[in-house]
Write a structure and sequence with these properties.
about 220 residues, five-stranded parallel beta sheet, about 45% helix, alpha/beta
Length: about 220
Amino acid sequence: MLWSGLVVLGLLGFEAGPHALLRHLENRYPVPTAEAVGRHVGVIVLGGATEHSDIYQAHGQVPLGQAAERMSVPVGLMRQHPNLQLVFSGGEGRLLATGVSEAELAKAFYQQQGVDMSRVVLEGGSRTTRENAIQVAALLGERCKQPWLLVTSAWHMPRSVPEFEAVGCQVTPYPVDFRTGAATAWTEYSLARSLLLWQTALHEWLGLWVYGVTR
């Protein structure tokens, strides 16, 4: 049993396995063109890109994680399209609360990036993707029926879009934070990195199943 476990653990280090699961999710929606972006009233950004708030409290800099594009891409979109507004949705989903929500970190990040905060609305009460949709719909009201871009990780998008559509929001997916390319060679091997990819892929596929059953 010990040797079998070691063999399985070793095989999990091949990145082609989790990449195949993630690629199926990431290729579900294309990135909109610049022309299409200009036809929207704003951007809805889902949290999940920041690290522990202790770092911000200690050093005054907002720590971005592997999903940093969720935060950075909308800044570029707002600079390219002055008509766009931004709605950030993210509370505190940690088991042990720190007292600082993702919305507070997002506010600090956008201020540090020189974003016009009169164009930004923050929602800091949601802890899950479903709550993101419900809270944003309540915040925007009838405006949620206008065309909005939805920015989140590409692998998270297949679970996010149906949730926003279910509450009556009109969203166009703008996937970011891609983890896979067109193909993955079997020579790509890293046990540490691959285990994180497996965790992301299995969490998202399980989430799709649970949200599908409970919707």
